[in-house]
Amino acid sequence: xxxxxxxxxxxxxxxxxxxxxxxxxxxxxxxxxxxxxxxxxxxxxxxxxxxxxxxxxxxxxxxxxxxxxxxxxxxxxxxxxxxxxxxxxxxxxxxx
Length: 96
Known about the structure:
Oligomer: single chain
Order of helices and strands: HEEEHEEEH
Shape: globular
Structural class: alpha+beta
Helix content: 25-40%
Strand content: 25-35%
Distance between the termini: 21 Å
Number of strands: 6
Largest sheet: 4 strands, mixed
Number of helices: 3
């Protein structure tokens, strides 16, 4: 499921410009971040966000295994109870 979500995002992650740039397409910020082989002691720094930062999914992996999934943004951190991409996507949409 993770490669599918990454592919969809890559193909659709553009925002329309405004003002002089109206109608032009620019890359938007990513809605999914995959962190590979991060030490447990370093995870917290990757989950920190600032006020008004858009919600996004953070996926922690070791090799091919997903070890944790979080929804983060606007200074909030939500641990996805079932660490899979479908649950994270539905939780992200529900909180948007």
